[in-house]
Amino acid sequence: MTDHLTTLQYTAQHEWLEITDDIATIGITDYAAEQLGDVVYVDLPDVGSMLTIGEAIGEIESTKSVSDLYAPVAGEVIEVNEEVDANPDLVNSSPFEDGWLIKVRVTDVAAGLLDRDAYLAMTGSGS
Amino acid sequence: MTNSTSDSMDGADAGAEADGGAPRETPLRAEHEALGAAFTDFGGWWMPVRYTSDRAEHTAVREAAGLFDISHMGEIFVRGSQAGEYLDFALAGRLSAVKVGRAKYTMLLAPDGGILDDLVVYRLEEQEFLVIANAANREVVAAELTTRADGFDVTVTDGSDDYALLALQGPRAVTILDEVVADGTISGLGMPLAEVKNYAWTDANLTPGEPGVDNRTNTDANLTPGEPGVDNRAKTDHNFTPGDRGVGGDGSAGGGHRGSTSGTTPLLLARTGYTGEDGFELYVAAEHAASLWRALLAAGESHGLVPAGLAARDTLRLEAGMPLYGHELSRDIVPAQAGLGRVIPADKRGFIGEPALEPRPQARVLVGLVAEGRRAGRAGYAVRQGDRVVGEITSGALSPTLGHPIALAYVDCAVAEDPEADLIIDVRGTPIRARLTTPPFYRRTS
């Protein structure tokens, strides 16, 4: 496990987020990507839209299933990953790097976020 | 992130709910784990859903070959002097007309004509048939076949726990099996592989062992299938039958080329499948499944063979327009609605499910839908014409082979009869334009 992953925060809904200053970068975890199978379509909020913690803000569609993406923070979407729109399989091949989904200027953060060990324990992946 | 649409294979699990408890495991569980498979509960069974990537496995089957563990399927034997006429009464098809050595797609119908399961039935002997049921319906099929046998000289035996079933599917299936024959792992074929017709089967023997071990000492029967043109299938000494599995001898050791050799186990090799590609399904005693699995993977590696999971199997069968029980087929659907009226001969009478022959004028019928883009309609999504709901999707996916969304759906008859119908799939609130098509969506060219 790289140091990078241990600095991330995780939700029980399998999002990860990295907050630098007041900007959060958000994606889905390697575990989620593995469970979904091949991601074929990603629907993300528009730049400029305002997020509320816990609301469904997008969809991740794989060969076999569809999952909602939930906002782990409140704030304004300032960037979406255009590469993922063109190549949804980046979510599978690089969930923590090239497969990031959105960047948000944060006004509030969800309570109860997990660290890497707690997240791995929750998914049964060990720590 | 939360799953908002469950895996589209879940519908087939309905029959397993009564079982409760942990899902059953196939004899190949350890093989799948060693290959890094992700698992899912399917039809009450703990099954590999993928090993690497759904799409990579799907593409391998279309372009080279894939190996599936489908040991969750049920194997039910029907034996007795009245086996043929009994099955004519108990099932939708005319099984008495099936020749020894051949197989037929058919259905178990409820008394009102609703579909209880779709089946493949092999005629093993004049008086012996092998009925293959879907995993989730195995108990229903076994129970119905037993009940319906009342008054007939037949016995119904559920042999499902004794057998494993592997499916080798793809354009290179013959080449790969030929290698396994050449190295002696499979021997005693009743006929050359190339002569095994679609929906036909032949006996063979498996020499269990590690791949790479030279088994050639046992192959004297291997490439001597008999006189060209002689129908080897008209034999009644086939060696694949419950009760004497693994015994090897069938009392005809001197009587021909298919007698088992000491140290071998019977194998039933059928040219059937569920992917739209050429391929074979191989039935073998459960304890020898791993040996066969490894031998096939080893022989196929250089030909592009990969192990393939249920996710790929589902997109392959959908592209091929093949119905899945729990999705396109159910207790509330009669065969004609599913476009499968041909499973009942028009002149057939005196069987359980006969009301299925009567038209159901208001009933929705199964159609294919295609759309642009990448967002696929899924099972349960509404199909609309303007503001009016005119149907519902039963299976849908972004077709890996075609690159656009495809779906099977039940729609109102009037809609199905209008090829120009302008339809909308409601993809979680987003309208996606779709048009009608006649399945299959994909048809192999060779």
TrEMBL record, chain A:
Keyword Transferase tagged: no
CDD domains with a match to the protein in the record: GCS_H
GO BP annotation list: glycine decarboxylation via glycine cleavage system; protein lipoylation
PROSITE patterns assigned to the protein according to its UniProt record, in alphabetical order: BIOTINYL_LIPOYL (PS50968), LIPOYL (PS00189)
Cofactor(s) recorded in Swiss-Prot or TrEMBL: (R)-lipoate
Annotated positions of the N6-lipoyllysine modification: 64
Family: Belongs to the GcvH family.
Subunit: The glycine cleavage system is composed of four proteins: P, T, L and H.
Highest rank taxon of the organism: Bacteria
Protein name: Glycine cleavage system H protein
A family per Pfam: GCV_H
Coiled-coil residues: none
Keyword set, alphabetical order: Lipoyl
InterPro entries found in the cross-reference section: 2-oxoA_DH_lipoyl-BS (IPR003016), Biotin_lipoyl (IPR000089), GCV_H (IPR002930), GCV_H/Fam206 (IPR033753), GCV_H_sub (IPR017453), Single_hybrid_motif (IPR011053)
